[in-house]
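Dissemination and training. As part of the outreach component of the grant, students in the summer workshop were shown how a complex can be specified as a set of sequence lines and then modelled as a single object. The example used during the hands-on session is reproduced here so that future cohorts can follow it. Participants entered these lines:
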Amino acid sequence: MTFINYASREINCKIVYYGPGLCGKTTNLQYIFDSTAPQARGKLISLATETDRTLFFDFMPLELGTVRGFKTRFHLYTVPGQVFYDASRKLILKGVDGVVFVADSQEERMDANIESLYNLEENLKSQGYDLMKIPYVCSSISEISIMLLQSMI
Amino acid sequence: MADTPILLREQQYHQIKAVLARLRMDASAKVVFLVDKDGQEIASLGEVGNLDTTSLASLAAGNVAATGGMAALIGEKEFPTLSHEGEKESIHISVIGRLLLVVVFDDRSSLGLVKLRSKQVSHQLATMFDEIASNDFDDLDSPFAGITDEDIDSLFS
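and obtained this result:
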């Protein structure tokens, strides 16, 4: 849910990175963190296991300048991709404004991509959202993966 | 969509800050935050200094969401308060409808005092937010109304 603060003239949006385990959601966030100016971003918080697998979420605030006098701030979250963390994924989708689906470009992970996409649709529905209506981006290093996944929805 | 947006008028924002200021004083707290359940910071007050309030708001919401999930699994609606006591600094979180009242305190205060004072202002904040939820914002220009594709492209250029 977009939070608009008229007093401080700020718009805050919540973007969630979704996708199967080990597809690169945290890496995406890490890349954004590494390639943005320190004054435009906050800390990258990672709630991960000792083996660096996301346990609950990664979080990073990112400022992108002003639009019509309103400072725009994006709160970027990732979800844990492993199947058994479904309860956590549902919680993180609360109040989401946009979803980036990160697909694994390896051919043998296509089934995992599809399963995760259906899981996203289901979890969005449980929070009162519709995947067909919410701003949604599909990302992968392979064009074919994206085309195949887009044909699924 | 799941929830209606929270739209605060400036006067209401200052009223909330006044309630938080009183709570901070009465509870001898270091910092007091009001956060929504999605992790968006609504207001903060106190010795913020170098404290990363954005991350703290997000983690507080994640914490409440996780314990809320556990509550649901054992048949509870939610756990209305959460406390974390450290060696020097502690945090107390109260769930007030869609809001989380987060109080950071040290050994100048005590958990009992913070709990008591938080409970006292909870009713007041709940009433204020009921009023805010019933606000009619038809007269307010949406900041999204005048935004063009060029405005958005310029953010990424």
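The CA atoms of residues 18 and 45 of chain B lie 9 Å apart. Students were then asked to discuss how this feature might be tested experimentally.
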